[in-house]
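Example for tutorial group B:
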């Protein structure tokens, strides 16, 4: 019994040693910064002075949140971005997935082309779209002028069109992601359902809405959660293409937090805003997980 006990202890020790590097990584790079950021909510910190620049601020940072016009503008822009981008990317991705799931010429090549924007460098993609959106010499406005539109949109230079321009670019990026997940979901739908529906005289459109869409509810649930979280964390696109302008028309929460922390050196207030962003994302995810059983019911 003693030998067995010693052997078990050695196995347990070996197991703990194997997970120790991962545990240390999570502790020092996730848990510790998380706790420190929560502490910063109640402090003012000029990080250029090191810990000597750390001072207690009480609830001052939380009080600033209520009267911060830029924060509420960024939140409104984020809600518009999420509300338009998520359903648009999901709808287009589903249509593309259904079409490519059939016998289409060069199916593999088309799947790669649709998925390529999602895995490409977001900075490089943003630079390319900035050139496309150029109001004077950009290809998009040149094409619109060729159609007879004398005053095409100003895109990134216009307060009315800058946010829609960002949304179009983000939707284009996410189409490949939604397409791949929907194609995986389509593989799990039994062919018998479509054959039975065809025998009953159901049209292709009716089969799509009565079979395909309900059977893809679990996949739709997964895509909705991931896209909502991702759109609330949009940063690189705004940073490269508009820097939050013009006149804060494309300012989003993640970029506002970055400006507050690393340009205005208000690390405590930036930490407070980051926790607001966390609460928003967590609340949305919690509501979605509460309705998970409803999403998993196919019919």
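The residue assignment follows.
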């Amino acid at each position: 019994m003693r030998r067995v006990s010693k052997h078990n202890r050695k196995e347990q020790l070996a197991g703990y040693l194997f997970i120790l590097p991962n545990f240390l990584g999570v502790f020092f790079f996730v848990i510790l910064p998380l706790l420190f950021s929560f502490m910063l909510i109640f402090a003012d910190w000029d990080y250029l002075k090191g810990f000597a620049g750390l001072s207690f601020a009480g609830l001052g940072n939380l009080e600033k949140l209520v009267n911060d016009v830029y924060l509420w503008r960024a939140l409104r822009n984020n809600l518009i971005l999420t509300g338009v981008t998520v359903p648009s990317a999901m709808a287009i991705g589903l249509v593309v997935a259904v079409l490519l799931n059939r016998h289409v010429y060069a199916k593999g090549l088309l799947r790669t082309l649709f998925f390529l924007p999602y895995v490409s460098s977001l900075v490089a993609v943003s630079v390319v779209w900035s050139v496309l959106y150029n109001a004077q010499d950009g290809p998009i406005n040149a094409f619109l002028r060729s159609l007879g539109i004398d005053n095409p949109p100003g895109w990134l230079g216009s307060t009315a069109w800058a946010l829609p321009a960002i949304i179009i670019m983000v939707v284009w990026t996410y189409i490949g992601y939604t397409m791949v997940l929907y194609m995986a979901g389509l593989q799990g739908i039994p062919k018998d359902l479509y054959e039975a529906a065809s025998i009953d005289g159901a049209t292709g459109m009716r089969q799509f809405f009565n079979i395909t869409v309900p059977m893809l509810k679990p996949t739709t649930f997964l895509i909705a959660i991931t896209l909502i979280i991702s759109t609330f964390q949009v940063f690189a696109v705004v940073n490269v293409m508009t820097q939050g302008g013009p006149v804060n028309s494309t300012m989003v929460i993640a970029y506002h937090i970055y400006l507050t922390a690393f340009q205005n050196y208000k690390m405590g207030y930036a930490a407070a805003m980051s926790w607001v962003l966390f609460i928003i994302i967590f609340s949305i995810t919690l509501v979605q997980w509460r309705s998970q059983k409803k999403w998993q019911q196919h019919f």
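DSSP finds 14 helices and two strands in the chain. Compare this with the pattern of hydrophobic and polar residues in the output above.
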